[in-house]
Amino acid sequence: MRIALFVALAALAPGLAAAQQPSANQVQQALQQQPGLADMVRSRISQSGLTPEQIRARLQASGYPTSLLDPYLGATQPAGSPAPGAQELAALQALGLPSLSNELLPYDTGFVRRPRLPEGPSEVFGVDVFQRTTTQFLPLLSGPVPPDYKLGPGDNLVLILTGDVELTYSLPVTREGFVLIPQVGQVHIANLTLDQLRDVLYTRLGRVYSGVRRTANATTRFDVTVANVRANQVYVIGEVSQPGAYQISSLATVFTALYAAGGVTERAKLRGVEVRRLGKTVATLDLYDYLLRGDTRADVRLETGDVVFVPIHESRVRVRGAVLRPAVYETKSSETLADVIVASGGFRPDAALERVKVLRVLPADARTTQTTARAAIDVPMNAGAVPKFRLEDGDIIQIDSLEAASDQYTVAITGMVQQPGTYPWRPGLTLRQLMVLARGPRIGADLRDAEIAKLPADRSKGQLATTVRVPLDSTYLFARDSTGGGRYIGPPGVAFPARGTAADVTLEPYDNVLIFRQPDFELQRTVTITGEVMYPGTYALKAKDDRLADLLQRAGGLTPRAYPEGIRFVRPADNRGRINIDLPKALSDRGSRDNVILQPGDSVRIPEYQPSVRVSGAVNSPGSVLYRKGAGLEYYLSGAGGFTRAAEKGQVSVHYANGEVRTRRRSLLFSSNPAPGPGSEVFVPTKDPNTPHTDTVALCGAIAQILASTVAIIVIAKR
Description:
Layout: H1 2-12, H2 24-32, H3 37-48, H4 52-61, H5 86-94, H6 101-104, E1 156-163, E2 167-172, E3 178-181, E4 185-188, H7 194-208, E5 220-228, E6 231-238, E7 244-249, H8 254-260, E8 273-277, E9 280-285, H9 287-293, E10 307-310, E11 316-321, E12 327-330, H10 337-343, E13 355-361, E14 374-380, E15 396-399, E16 410-415, E17 421-424, H11 431-437, E18 445-454, E19 466-471, E20 512-517, E21 526-531, E22 537-540, H12 548-554, E23 568-571, E24 577-579, H13 583-588, E25 603-606, E26 612-617, E27 623-626, H14 633-639, E28 653-655, E29 661-663, E30 665-666, E31 671-672, E32 681-684, H15 694-718
Parallel strand pairs: 6-10, 11-15, 16-20, 21-25, 26-32
Antiparallel strand pairs: 1-2, 1-5, 3-4, 6-7, 8-9, 8-10, 11-12, 13-14, 13-15, 16-17, 18-19, 18-20, 21-22, 23-24, 23-25, 26-27, 28-29, 28-32, 30-31
Helix pairs in contact: 1-2, 1-5
């Protein structure tokens, strides 16, 4: 068993140049951890659309036993069949199917591996491009082939004859480069293109099928295509993330191999990737053609045994500052500063185009104790054009950002505009343009004229500003309504200035523009009334002196169920909250102080008459007691069963329907008991066991007052 696994692994990755090979036990353990592996193999085969005969033919052409995959050709696996191993996984790729090796085996099997994730974005331009987490870039082993594709061992062809005969043959190419056509025999096709193969087949097929002719009157026609291409083994070495041997499609190119190897390292020479074939360099790729311009014409197709070599980089420069793509770039001997700026994407809009600074490493013989290792070279530019300044290895190209001016001229606009504030001034700036920057006037702006405060020409008398009034017109109203006329809410009786009646006003540095507010302009004030009125709702005040009685009248008056003494009047303005209002007095005497002037946001609620008083807290029978006119607090406490032992008798409170709260006051000499009204609530608190009893405190206080009074009387009597 151990020998068989090693043989299978060798068939899976022949000639593998891996840094660490897995043992047979490791491979076996990895496969045993996949209990559904047989179903996965069966699924891959069923999705391929290949017939059992085609599968066996391809296995034979690739050097595998023809019955290797027979247990997985049916819907279920025959009893007693062994679990699939490394050899079965390798055979899947020989069929041209996506391999399961990279998904199941955590080892280097020689097939295309998933590249390692980069630790972070690289500063070197182009290094991150070929680093991928998947192998989606790799071409499939099936599909059309280009006209210059040369056939070879491992390819699978399909020959179709129509006309006098109707035949279809699957023709795998053997290791010797032959295909076996029934009744025709072996045909050597290695290194032929499809067009060359068709020429050969006209001759060979014509010997067997008389109808096969090149003329238009042929009665038998044929077509030959490539169903699946072979897998080539190539070697990717040098400055790549995962150097080694890779089995890739025979349609694969240098870019494919770089993606398969996980990309290049930061030490790689991107402008001189070599392709070596049979000991000779057959191509050298400058990847910048692909990275900068998308040019893939130099991307050659690889063959079995090719070596892709990525050497270590040579000359490099760093571009930083105000360019679109700051990075480290490779340079060739003929390239200049202008070429590198183009590669970096060019200057940003905020780049200072007067000069470019180049920091250069001095040679060892030019360094002294008085000089630094780098020298700064200012390269002047002519109207933004970059000169052809020659660069050296290690140069740092610095393009500065325009510095913000510390003292910038500004103008300001305040008042009735959408975005008041300070804005940069520029020569020729007009008031209309400043209004656009401020997003136009607000509702209620007085657009008849505006005031501009300017710096005074003479400050000798302590003058701070001079003001001028300038006219405005309809062009300052940017937000138009649906009528298109720019309807304007202006002061009463004042015509809106027509378009073109106001000339442009040119602003000067530090001008301060004030857009006036229309006198007495105000949007509707609203108040809310709810509860027991005929028409509850939110009402807009007609005048600033509208009063509570006016609101009740507009709301249709009180309903028969209303309890006017329980009115709740809340004023949120200035956080004033609830206000005590005697509504019956406000309705009977409109000049009384209870008939208050309404303010925006006022809320009025008229409760329904409740002929009961609720008693809660430390009483023996909490609940509601029917209201009795003239009855005092003790009546309702008695109706609730009286106090419990834990009751705090001296702190009984009454919560009235209008929100008012009154608390009982008791002492040795006098007491004050609030009288409950309809819809009110009597609350009896519970004693706090950690504080002295209220009655005791009150008693002690009263005794102290009596003693003090007695002493005072005695002292006066003695005098």
